[in-house]
């Protein structure tokens, strides 16, 4: 429940399904894009990490 509105919040899994079904979007890509735009707007890394619930701002290395 949202403490500000008193309404139920949309869960991650349900949001993922709705975005994919009705907008053809991938929720992970959307979160990544939002974090990227915040970084480009010079928002402090700690705030971005809080919004994305990441523990580290280090880039993850992909394996070949």
Topology at a glance:
Blueprint: H1 12-23, H2 27-40, H3 45-52
Overall description:
It is a single chain. With 64 residues, the protein is mainly α. It has 3 helices and no strands. It is globular.
Describe what is shown at a glance:
By secondary structure, the protein is mainly alpha-helical. It contains 3 helices and no strands.
Structure keywords:
single chain; 64 residues; mainly alpha; 3 helices; 53% helix
**Segments where pLDDT lies below 50 for 5+ residues?**
none
Which whole number gives the mean pLDDT? 82
Strand content: under 5%
Tell me the Rg in angstroms: 14 Å
Order of helices and strands: HHH
The biggest beta sheet, please?
Answer: none
Number of strands: 0
The shape is globular
Look at the helices and sheets and give the structural class: mainly alpha
Determine the N-to-C terminus distance: 42 Å
Q: Number of helical segments?
A: 3
- Kindly state the percentage of residues in helix: 40-55%
